[in-house]
Amino acid sequence: MMADMAAGYCGEKHVEDFLDRVGTVYPNPREVDTTRRKFWYRDDLDRAMNISAVETASGIGAKFAERLRERRKGS
Asked: How far apart (Å, rounded) are the C-alpha atoms in residues 45 and 23?
């Protein structure tokens, strides 16, 4: 996904905030064909946000993960 979509996926309000955190909190993009085309893969972003760890959790973390899955299905 492009930077604007990746920012929204990660819950960032602004693309600039997302890009400021790339390389630290979020992974670097994968370059396709040239350095001008950069994409983030959902699996890379999920690993950075520990989505898989939340899915196996119980309690509040599990409820949050379930709501997140429901929202994604509805979109």
From this structure: 12
Which two tokens mark 60?
């509040």
- DSSP secondary structure of the chain: --HHHHHHHTT-SSHHHHHHHBTTTBPPPEE-SSTT-EE--HHHHHHHTTHHHHHT--THHHHHHHHHHHHHHH-
Round to whole Å and give the CA distance between 69 and 3. 21
Return the percentage of the chain with pLDDT > 70, whole number. 84
Site of tokens 């972003």? 45
The pair of structure tokens assigned to 42 is: 């959902």
